[in-house]
Amino acid sequence: MKRVLSNKWNIMVFVLPTVLFFTYIVIFPIFKTLWYSLLNEIPAKVGDQSHVVWLDNFIKMFTPGRRNSFPGAVGNSLLYAVLSIFVQLPFSMFIALLLANGVKGESFYRNVFFIPVVISSVVVSLLWGRLYKSLLPQMFESFGWTIPKNGFLGNETTKIWFSFLPSLWQYVGYHMLLMYGALKSIPDDIIEAATVDGASGAKLAFRIQIPMIKPMLKVCLSFSLIGSFKLFDTPWVLLERSNMDLPALSMYVEMFSNHKYSYASAQAIFIVLECLVFTVLLNIVFKDRDERRLARGKGAARA
Amino acid sequence: MKKKSVAGTILKQLFLILWVFLCLFPLYWMVTMSLKDTNEIFGTNMVGLPTQWLWGNYANAWGSGGRVSNYMLNSVIDTFATLIGTSFLGYMSAYGLLRMRWRGQKAVFTYILMGMMIPMHAALYPLTEILMSLTKTHWALIIPYVAFNIPITILILSGFIANIPYEMEEAACIDGSGIYRTAFTIILPMMVPALITAAIFVFLQVWNELLLASLFTTDSVRTLTVGIKQMSGQYQTDYGSMGAGLVIATLPTLILYMCMSGQVQKSLIAGAVKG
To answer: Among the CATH numbers 1.10.3720.10, 2.160.20.80, 1.10.287.180, 3.40.50.2000, which is that of B61-274?
Structure first.
């Protein structure tokens, strides 16, 4: 059998098509983007090196200027990340805890809360766009609140908040489900022991349940962070093309409207680097914590 | 064991019902919008049930003005072809990478999984160069969809394939079955649940994809997401038909979810690492 499973020809037939296809469509373009980001324009001839400007595009990206909206775009994506981490995730956690600790209708609620996740973000955005134009103003009026000038999405100060809202709303169910699954997999005897010791409600949640699902929190956090750097669909549909307020949108506009391919490539590379840096940071933070806890645990055991 | 106050329980239920309302309201709004005329949608009857149920909106969106039927067909073709591609290539390579024994298999496995970390944005312009000549065909979307979903498919399959004992192959080998027969008639049937899990994840990714679809499709191969996005501009005066288009575009995923909500949830949990 070993001979069959390590036959070189068989292995090649099974693996090589996928590896070549994947390399040509996914990996090769990424290196090409990296190369383009170092040029000032895409040369007509492959291998022509007279256009190399090294890091000029990246410097230009962060040179302050009235017409340079990229630093602001990055700032906005960080704002989305903050909202996602400090509002969306705690809210999802709250719901997950409520459901996991047992309420009537647990699985009904879980199934309903997940519905927005499976709907296309285009549909979600178009629906919210309509809400902002018809129902929400009416509601504001009947409550006697002032509607932002030029509408919710036309107003410079409010548009960023209202374009974030739909995707924050949409993915609450996803985070809730991930956390709920993790909470449910905590062994019952641990919860019981804690309950016997008098822990309940918030104390049980913060001392036992949340610390125990840290690995899943890491998944949720990286989903939030990477999602905010790549955020594209919802604001693109909601705000039409008139803006460059987020990194991915800015890249899209530079590339396909302004045809500055190499500059847009640099922005694409920046987005990738941002995702990688934050993934690594997240790993370091969570690893450090675990190690410290482990060290503390050992110290306690020795004492 | 636990003291449960009545007030607490009621408060909990109220809160959860409020969120149910907030989750479902946009859907309710979409469905009622699809059955109203523009006057009702703007003003006279925004939130109520339609006074007259205008099923004609659906006919309009589906056929004459809206061409949603076309978009739907294109989305179905692209999604279906992508699923065949990811399942076939994913299974073949998962088998080769995780079942067969050769030097460097770990390295190749890691190489492919690393592709998961990389957002499509990063490959956009070079992809344009490769695919621009194909935008009149379905291949312009199927090719990148398959390629970008191979890593997650392999990852989901890898979790399952590790649980199948090697004795299966040994027995097959003793019976004189060759590698292809072993892989496709003995191991593959056992991998069907894993393939379904991966396929549901990929289905939702591809069905809802907007960025590539808006770049690499010309009119005749336009998919639903791009189609309804365009309709929202085109139908400035006919919001009922736009609503109908939204409902039609959402139905397939909603039906899938209603029929197998547990399986869909499992798939999306399995794919969560994709970021």
So the answer is: 1.10.3720.10
